[in-house]
Amino acid sequence: MVAMATKTQRAERRTDALSKERIVEAAIDILDADGEGALTFRALTARLATGAGAIYWHVANKGELLAATTNDVIARVMTEAADGAEPREAIRAIALGVFDALDAHPWVGAQLSREPWHSAMLQIFEGFGEQLEALGVPPEEQFDCASALLNYILGLAGQYAAGAARVPEGTDRTAFLASVAAQWSQLDEAEYPFIRRVAVQLPDHDDREQFLAGLNLILTGITATRDVS
Amino acid sequence: MVAMATKTQRAERRTDALSKERIVEAAIDILDADGEGALTFRALTARLATGAGAIYWHVANKGELLAATTNDVIARVMTEAADGAEPREAIRAIALGVFDALDAHPWVGAQLSREPWHSAMLQIFEGFGEQLEALGVPPEEQFDCASALLNYILGLAGQYAAGAARVPEGTDRTAFLASVAAQWSQLDEAEYPFIRRVAVQLPDHDDREQFLAGLNLILTGITATRDVS
DNA sequence: ACCTGAACACCGTTCAAGT
DNA sequence: ACCTGAACACCGTTCAAGT
Question: Residue A53 CA to D18 C1' — how many Å?
Fold first, then answer.
């Protein structure tokens, strides 16, 4: 909040002094490289060649550190998925931007679903709200609509976080999905008819397309409701 | 998978021997009473008056234990939200069933979003799929539609988990929301116009109603798409 | 003001030993 | 077969001490 005004102080004076930015950067590197489990204060102190206390001087605790890393990634998405476009397209751009960010940084998913009404999420929420306004959705409905969009994206976030954790390091995605599909088709026919049917589609389905399809369902719902009333 | 066949052995012989069921039960009690952070093996051994090793004899690790507790809660929901009703109503029943379960056991949310294609989630997914079939959604679209519904619900799950963790023990919900709303209205007008506008609606909005509104958006999208094509 | 690093309390998990 | 509980490795966090 209010924050980042500190950024104004000249950035060129690159002593290698510790700073919250440097710590966050190092944390993101570790998270990207080796996942959530690898981000420990010991790993951080090793990478930054410092002591644990030094980090605590800049950052209150691990929670704040994780919030800051997530914020960083999402802020980047929101400035890139700039507006200008037609509202529905802008909503898709935001959503897909988040999707791609989760794809690149799977650990963000876990963070997002734990940080409900805070910073990163507010940015996304605001983005949706503004576009809904531009779309002509009446004010009383904007809250519900923006919530639905946000909820949908957060569901994805969780999936991604968990999925990434699940896929073993070496295996590629399609091989993994094929093995899941194999498990699905061994489920009890009487109890899981739908899942068995859908198993064949799993290996070569496109996550991003499926995500977009669901998003379009919601967008259709939003427009349809409005046209009718 | 395949599992639970062990259940066939007579259950009446209630010695107070340890069993996976008793452990899961105790875990749920602890989780409900004091939240996720309170579930430690030491707390469990104390409550069950046993040693750590005894628990490990019945349960592989903490992950499996958490999965089992989540499974328990969701399985209960799915049997209660029985079918028979009109498909759209059945889908709402499942979704609201999950909603209410999350309300009663907030820690389930965190679990659900970490357990992507496993047991508890498969049950929900199957439930949606069958109702979509009953609704007449063409097979090629069922996968995407069920995914959208599941994603939406999981988003809620994450929110709930985080929200519950955030609300301090003593405070009641509306007071908490009021304080969040107060924070929102102090955000920068230029950066967060939408959130500032929506802040007034926050304190007395009904989560369950809002959840249902979003669900109806998706259901409308599903039906609309189908009617048009 | 900023950093060091040993120390603390507390985890999940293991395992030799009991019955 | 099932249980005990001390021991291990590893966390996040603190804090007296340095510069």
Answer: 13
